[in-house]
Amino acid sequence: MSAARRIVYAGFATPRHSGGVHVLTEHVRLLRAAGEQAWLWLPNPDNRTDWIDADLPVLSGATTPIGAADLLVLPETPTIQGRDPAPGARKVIFNQNHFYTYAAGIPGRDFPGWSPPPAVWVVSVESRDVLRTVLPDLPVSLVPNEVDGDLFAPRPTDRVRVCWFPRKRPREASLLRQILGNDPRLSSVELVELVDAPRSVVADTLGTSTVFVSLGHSESFGLPVAEALASGCLVTGYDGGGGHELFEAPGAWQVPEQRPLLLRDRVVDLLDRATELAPLRTGNRAWVLEHYPRTRTADALREAVATAFARPGADSVATHPAAWLDVLGPHFTAFA
């Protein structure tokens, strides 16, 4: 390993906690622990958000130099056909959602038309299989997400609670809230919508909930489901596509898309059988921590980095992808 080489992750200082940016910060930490010079790159030094830890190494600015020995890691959006953010540089597209691959426009046959062509990293088996199909000329590596079993864990409670995130399906969530709230069988159940909640509050809520309702939509993985499993919740709802692997957990039940009454019935059934199903709550935690440990992520990341560094690279000045966010349209991030 060359001490001079750097790995620079282009990310965003979102005002609320972002699962995608959080994964970038964890990559930086894992790579630093492995002896790499890894950095998170933000476009503006004035908008660093308070949920990104102050000790995380950060570069800032609309542009940054990328050396011939370096690796630049870019998000899947906005990736614009033929608009290379760092011509000549060694690059990886870290695609955390295959549904957003072409969010910035119609691709060409040589997508994305960058020089040299990038490698691609993904976070789920579904994303890997999809992108190997649609990008057959680019190398695609799986770097699975880790699940923080220290933060997300069952906690003592005397409550009976059901929770969900409404952000990906706000219209259906509004129906679900009324359907559950109007059901006399759930009159003593606490219903919690997690809206723009800090990560610590999410962990507290999941850790004291009996049932988590997944309202995933166009997911590559679905980290909230994984965190709910680690928290000892029974899980029901939608896998969002890429999250189907998480519903292999012993205490997780899929429901057909956009069927809020079926969701209600499943929630009621799970609460009625909560005592009987208690071993499955323990099993969910054991299952997800076995399948998504930190060591698996670290090993896959080191292998993906080694493969990426075997590809060519030259000196360049990189433009942060924030420069092209406007191509996504004003409503893209509403449900992203």
Walk me through what this model shows.
- The chain is α/β, with parallel strands linked by helices and 336 residues long.
- The chain folds into two domains: 6-145 and 294-334, Rossmann fold; 161-291, Rossmann fold (3-Layer(aba) Sandwich).
- The chain has helices at residues 19-33, 125-134, 170-181, 199-207, 223-230, 260-272, 278-291, 294-309; strands spanning 6-10, 37-42, 58-60, 63-66, 71-75, 91-95, 119-122, 140-142, 161-164, 190-193, 211-215, 234-238, 252-254, 316-319.
- The strands form three sheets. Strands 3-2-1-5-6-7-8 form a seven-stranded parallel β-sheet, sandwiched between helices. A five-stranded parallel β-sheet has the order 10-9-11-12-13, with helices on both faces.
- The mean pLDDT is 95.
Features:
8 helices, 2 domains, Rossmann fold, five-stranded parallel beta sheet, seven-stranded parallel beta sheet, single chain, 336 residues, alpha/beta
Tertiary shape: elongated
Bin the helical content: 25-40%
Global mean pLDDT: 95
Terminal Cα separation, in Å?
A: 36 Å
Strand content: 15-25%
Kindly provide the radius of gyration, computed on alpha-carbon positions and rounded to a whole number of angstroms.
21 Å
Largest sheet: 7 strands, parallel
Q: What's the number of domains?
A: 2
- What is the name of the CATH class of the largest domain? Alpha Beta
User: Would you tell me which CATH topology of the largest domain applies?
Assistant: Rossmann fold
CATH architecture identity of the largest domain: 3-Layer(aba) Sandwich
Strand order, largest beta sheet: 3-2-1-5-6-7-8
By helix and strand content, what is the structural category?
alpha/beta
Number of strands: 14
